[in-house]
Amino acid sequence: QAKDAGRGCFAYFSEDLTLAARERIALESRLRRAIEQQDLRVFYQPQVDIISGRIIGAEALVRWQDSVEGLIPPIRFIPIAEETGLILVIGEWVLRETCRQGRQWLDAGLLPLTLAVNVSPHQFRRSDICDLVATVLSDTGFPASQLELEITESGLMDNQGNATEILNCLRGQGIRLAIDDFGTGYSSLACLKHFPLDLLKIDKSFIDDIPHLQDDMEIASTIIAMGHILGFKVLAEGVETPEQLMFLQEKGCDMYQGYIKSCPVPAEEFVELLRNQQRLVD
Ligand code: C2E
Ligand code: MG
Ligand code: MG
Ligand code: MG
């Protein structure tokens, strides 16, 4: 079939690949510079208790503040960082910055929050991840009990060999463990029960079409029910509408994140959200 496509077509594809490859190399070196010049930022998206409606934590999400392009979303650079190994540097920086910020919020008297940090499959594959986290916690003085690490299904499944060992080591420090984007990978709930996890995050793609798609509603409520049977808390990602929120409340989902509450915001804006919430109580 490749032959049938003819020469012109082949030339087109190879030029295309070269261009893509060149763009990737350019992006990689820009990203290296961005890390050196400290152009990365951490944004915080509230995690909300579904019954009280109160913010109980936040997910730390990295951004690239480029002087020309402005704010570059992670989807543009995380995949390349993952392939080149730069994710190790970025991931450590996000962890450190989040713990530093968390400690500062504690010292400022803000109520104790759980801060969740994403751990990429590449990071998780490294057996020194447990030591790294211990070092960052002791350097920053952020309590382990307030740190949550989010691992994707693929991160877990790619590394079945010593995943349990790593998870146990992290949990031994008192850190909480979440499985991110649940439902998009290849793992089953039956498989997850062997891992020491605390929280299951239902991927946004299952929330988007609630209340219009019966299948997704059944999938979401099944994940909630089975997650609870296995002893996990369940959080829904990407909640945007009151209908979605009501459905999840009815099904007993524990927490949510989504634009209906807030998109990811810089640290100062997150503090503003917390203060407003506090004001409502006082
Ligand atoms: P994720 O960990 O599943 O993060 C949730 C993503 O969903 C975030 O996108 C968030 O802004 C978005 N989101 C949350 N609520 C809503 C909503 O109601 N509507 C819509 N349309 N979107 C919503 P973001 O910040 O662009 O991050 C995308 C992905 O990039 C993350 O997915 C995560 O896989 C990766 N990522 C971000 N920061 C880091 C990091 O520090 N380390 C690693 N390894 N990955 C990161
Ligand atoms: Mg996440
Ligand atoms: Mg997610
Ligand atoms: Mg996601």
From TrEMBL:
Residues 24-278 form the EAL domain. It is found in: Cell membrane. This is cyclic-guanylate-specific phosphodiesterase. It comes from Methylobacter tundripaludum (strain ATCC BAA-1195 / DSM 17260 / SV96). The lineage of its organism: Bacteria, Pseudomonadati, Pseudomonadota, Gammaproteobacteria, Methylococcales. The chain holds residues 701 to 982 of 982 of the full protein.
